[in-house]
Amino acid sequence: MKAENGVREGVRAGERERGRYPFHDLPISRSPVFGTGRAVIAALAVALTCATTSAQQYPSRPIRLLVPNPPGGATDNLARVIAPKLSGVLGQAVVVDNRPGSNGNLATEAAARAAPDGHTLMLSADAQIVISPHLYRKLPFDTLKDLTPVASLVSTQMLLAVHPSLPVRSVQEFAEYTRRASPPLAYASIGNGSQHHLAMEMLKSRAGIDLLHVPFKGGGPALMALFGGEVSVMFGGSSAGPSVRSGKLRALALAGKRNAAYPGLPALSESFPGFEVTPWLGLFAPAGLQPSVLNRLRAETGRLLADPEVLGRVRNIALDPFATTPKEFAALIRAEYAKYGEVVRAVGVTID
After folding, report:
1. What span, in angstroms and rounded, lies between the C-alpha atoms of 147 and 120?
2. Residue-wise over 293-310: b if at least 16 C-beta within 10 A, else e?
3. Which domains does the chain have, with CATH numbers?
4. pTM for the full model?
5. Each residue of 121-132: pLDDT tens digit?
6. Buried-exposed string 6-28: b where 16+ CB fall within 10 A, e elsewhere
7. How far apart are CA 209 and CA 4, in angstroms?
8. Is 328 helix (H, G, I), strand (E, B) or coil?
């Protein structure tokens, strides 16, 4: 009897166990949870092998480097510096593909929609990534979700420059003179919603001054207007540097940090703590890029930024090397996206 009771108890315990784990007695090869075990293991092995092979074979064909601007600008000039160098280390041609139009949105859309295999990259200015999304209400892409930041590459300076006839030689004198001016002084920008426009609006807010915005179609016409005295002040990019050195313009401060290229010129943050506008250029890929491919691109890009020849050529086109870690670059993009979003909403500018 004891034996029979023991058997019955064992059966009941087994049933209870099967109730808790309904697939307890099924072999893994036929379990509804795991499907066919051998097939799953084989599929995982194939996937792992394919991923490893893909990374080892990258790149398997020429790489397209999208540039959102026409030939001749800073972004294009940088692309012509790094493309042949990347070609040499990756073993495939890196072909510069200029896609100007819609303030860079055409190139950004092409990059966002490309296959995430590392064969389409984009060299983009910060404005396309962190400003344009706030200016256009119906973009067919999300720069924070549809692109992978590969690496920061270079930065450049913006100068607060005035016409030499303006009787000011410092930021403080400029602010005081502007507050007394009637009618308000006019300032130039390279277009509505441009970084030059938003930087001046930020300065207006911080300094408590009023200025009249006069947008132009590009940096050349804006500089010519400042040379001719049609406007009194503007934030100029690297193209304004030679005019400052020749005396055609007077620089009062840098929008970013102090820079050895402009000895003695203060940063605006020294008068208005927290103010900083430092334009940068970075390398991007479509979202979903395989980590091994992304890591290789980051490693090769990092080596380029340490190459003395590349550094020399970068500085010759008035750009500064700007190397960050992936986390730092991602954090910068998020912070500037939020910062410019607030400025665009405050100014109320849209482009559609």
Report:
1. 11
2. bbebbbebbeebbeeeeb
3. 2-48 (no CATH), 63-155+288-347 (3.40.190.150), 159-270 (3.40.190.10)
4. 0.82
5. 999 999 999 999
6. eeeeeeeeeeeeeeeeeeeeeee
7. 97
8. helix
